[in-house]
Design a protein that fits this description.
The structure is a single chain. The protein starts with a strand and ends in a 6-residue tail after the last helix. The protein has two domains: about 120 residues, no CATH class; about 110 residues, Zincin-like (2-Layer Sandwich). Helix content is about 35%, strand content about 15%. The chain has about 250 residues and is an alpha/beta fold. About 30% of the residues are buried. The longest helix has 29 residues. It is elongated. β6 and β7 form a beta hairpin. It is built from six helices and nine strands, in the order βββαβαββββαααβα.
């Protein structure tokens, strides 16, 4: 497991996300103490690892329950969407296209142009029922722009187990994305994995701002609670002890 940490003065909240083929990226406020950083990073890493295990277990379980479907071209996607639309809401559709969103939107609709965009990471060997749910979710937005009770009533009319299908689709999209990327090639002076840092120096990765998958807010210097075992992740203490005191 590779972990990269960025320390910055610009934030008050620690955050972490799993990207680039499973690399965990963590951001922490520079002014925090070393012990506080260590404890919070441990918590965030454990949280992401737990989520990763849950997603893989869910998809493994569903592999025997749902057929897989691949929509390789825009024409195939359009045929799929228009068939589902004819079976359900029968709304007036505009352009249907394949997008490239990795972390923000699995799919989205532009209500002004009536254009629907579906991320390509949802379309290869996807769980068929979950993908159908995703399309119905977007079609429901033609009637309700938000995610209020009326919206979910529309979705539930055609997908009674929409909560489960939503979890499956999100897990599939996320696992496809992190499995499709190789670690970013960043110059050594910009990125240093924690394990490769020298004593007295902090290892951090400089990355553009992105929406975090998990976060902890701790503007004070009060130490977070330790985990139930009272210890850190195996191999993690050694890495973190390479940090120098602030």
């Amino acid at each position: 497991m590779q972990i990269q940490v960025e320390e910055t003065r610009k934030i008050r909240r620690a955050s972490a996300c799993m990207r680039d083929g499973g690399v965990i990226h963590v951001k922490v406020p520079r002014h925090w103490s070393r012990d506080l950083k260590r404890s919070v990073i441990e918590e965030l890493v454990e949280r992401l690892q737990k989520k990763d295990r849950q997603e893989k277990a869910l998809l493994s379980k569903q592999a025997t329950k749902q057929e897989k479907i691949t929509l390789a071209t825009q024409a195939e996607l359009e045929t799929f969407v228009r068939r589902i639309n004819a079976e359900t809401f029968n709304v007036e559709l505009g352009k249907i296209q394949i997008g490239y969103a990795r972390y923000n939107h699995l799919a989205q609709v532009n209500l002004r142009t009536k254009t629907m965009t579906v991320s390509k990471y949802c379309l290869k060997d996807a769980p068929a029922e979950a993908l159908r749910y995703l399309i119905i979710h977007e079609l429901a937005h033609y009637f309700e722009s938000g995610h209020g009770p009326k919206f979910w009533a529309l979705v539930g009319r055609h997908v009674p187990d929409y909560r489960l299908q939503s979890r499956i689709m999100k897990a599939f999209h996320h696992q496809t994305v992190i499995g499709s990327e190789a670690p970013s090639a960043v110059p050594a002076e910009e990125t240093t994995p924690i394990a490769a840092t020298s004593a007295g120096k902090s290892g951090f990765a400089t990355k553009p701002k992105r929406k975090a998958a998990s976060s902890v807010n701790n503007s004070s210097t009060k130490e977070p609670k330790q985990n139930k075992t009272g210890g850190l992740i195996p191999g993690f203490v050694k890495q973190l002890l390479l940090w120098g005191d602030r």
